[in-house]
Amino acid sequence: MSKPIHAANRQLLGSSHALTRRAFMERAAALGLTAAAANSLWPGAAKAAPNKGGHAIIGCHGAQTTDSFDPASVPDMYISVTRTAIFSTLVEVRPDGVLSPLLAESYEASPDAKQWRFKLRKGVTFHNGKTVTPDDVIATMQLHLNPDTKSPMSSVLADVERVSKDGDWVVFDLSTGNADFPVLAAEYMLSILPSEEGVATWQEGQGTGAYRLENFDPGVSAKLVRNPDYFMADRGNFDSIEMLAINDKVARTNALMTGEIHVATQVPPVLIKRLEKVPSIALDMRTTGDFYTYDMLMTGAPFSDNNVRMALKHAIDRQQFVDIALAGFGVVGNDHPLGPFYEYHPTDLPQRDFDPDKAKHYVKKAGLSSLKVPIHSGQNTFPRALDGAVLISESAKKAGIEVEVVQEPDDGYGANIWGKKPWFASHWTSRAAADAILTAAFLGGQPWNVTGFDNERFNKLTLEARTVLDKDKRARDLRRDRAHHA
Amino acid sequence: MRDEGASAIVAHPQAIDAVSTDIQRDDGTTALTNLASRKALEFWSFKA
Question: Taking the complete model, does pTM exceed 0.80, yes or no?
Answer without folding.
Answer: no
